Amino acid sequence: MDTSKPFNVLFLCTGNSARSVMAEALMNKEGAGRFKAYSAGSMPTGRVNPHVRPIVEICGFQLTDFRSKSWDEFAKPEAPPLDFIFTVCDNAAGEVCPIWPGQPMTAHWGVPDPAAAEGSEAQIGAAFAQAARLLGNRIRLFLSLPLESLDRMSLQTKLREIGERVDQAGSVQ
User: Fold this and answer.
1) How many CB atoms lie within 10 A of CB 47?
2) Average pLDDT over the chain, rounded to whole?
3) Nearest-angstrom CA–CA distance, 135 and 94
4) Which residue among 32, 72, 77, 155 is least enclosed by CB atoms within 10 Å?
5) Which residues are catalytic, by number?
6) Percent of the chain topping pLDDT 90
């Protein structure tokens, strides 16, 4: 892979209001300079969940830096060329995606939906923190891959493994 330019990464979810937005913020913080992340949804809610605020702020962003948008924006000719696409919710993984120009590498990194959490504000906040931790673990594993020395098939296998077998410590088993 050509590592001379930043890689464009798209995180997909159905509503593009929580998990994909957190992943976008985490990747832009952790992968700054090497990666540029975006997020989108198949059926965007039109708003970012307010419980995402602490996570994006820890990453150095404001909640207003993000918006809930359709994945159709990234299938247009003027969209940034995508190198990697990760689905972070089970619904989006099963949906028929647009045809992405350039044949980006794809993988499913499903994370439980923190927006579905019920209970006190502390319990809901804990669900969002847990989702951010899982996404952060996967992103850090991805960032540690030797992209310049992996062939496409090996890289695809590694991407799938990150989504399938991430343990509590964040290591691929």
Assistant:
1) 11
2) 89
3) 19
4) 77
5) 13, 89, 97
6) 77
